[in-house]
Amino acid sequence: MTGKVRYGVIGLGWFGEKHCEALAGIPNVELYALCTRTEQRLKALGKQFGVERLYTDYHAMLADPGLEAVSVVTMWDQHTAPTLAALAAGKHVFLEKPMASTLKDCRAIVKAANATRSFFMVGHICRFNPRYAAAKQAIAE
Predict the structure, then answer these.
(1) Going by CATH, does the domain composed of 5-140 fall within 3.40.50.720?
(2) Closest listed residue to residue 53, CA positions, set 7, 85, 93, 5
(3) Are 103 and 125 in contact (CB under 8 A)?
(4) d(CA 138, CA 141)
(5) Do 57 and 81 touch, CB atoms closer than 8 A?
(6) Which secondary structure element, helix H or strand E, spans residue 106, and what is its range?
(7) CA gyration radius, the chain
């Protein structure tokens, strides 16, 4: 055990790369695995971030017992399947917004998250921005 959370990123578009940058800078995180369907992009980001576990199929990545947590950063209309698979595999999940493209899929994700002991968070990061908090306070007043 390294004492670090072994973390994977599913989806390596522009925002997936930003997740990799952020995760690589956190002392208690090991950027452990990457997944995207485009092999050239996968190899390039694997080299850039020093990640050896590279996957074009998220099911194969999620089968790795060493992987503890994932960010799902696919296109928003493709969030549901990898999120449900990650939760079923017992991984902790950070899901980029929006959760899914339909209310039915959102409900399925919430149900799966509630049925597991894993942590689950949707990436509504603006709520942590002081400007948004100040705007909320001004509206409330």
Answers:
(1) yes
(2) 7
(3) no
(4) 5
(5) no
(6) helix 103-114
(7) 16
Query: Among candidates 58, 64, 80, which has minimal Cα distance to 30?
Result: 64
Residue 78 and residue 17 in contact, taking contact as beta carbons nearer than 8 Å? no
pLDDT tens, the chain, 141 aa long: 458 999 999 999 999 999 999 999 999 999 999 999 999 999 999 999 999 999 999 999 999 999 999 999 999 999 999 999 999 999 999 999 999 999 999 999 999 999 999 999 998 766 667 887 888 889 999
User: Which has the closest alpha carbon to 30: 12, 53, 10, 14?
Assistant: 53
Residue with tokens 């929006």: 98
pTM of the entire structure? Answer: 0.88
Domain extents in the chain: 5-140
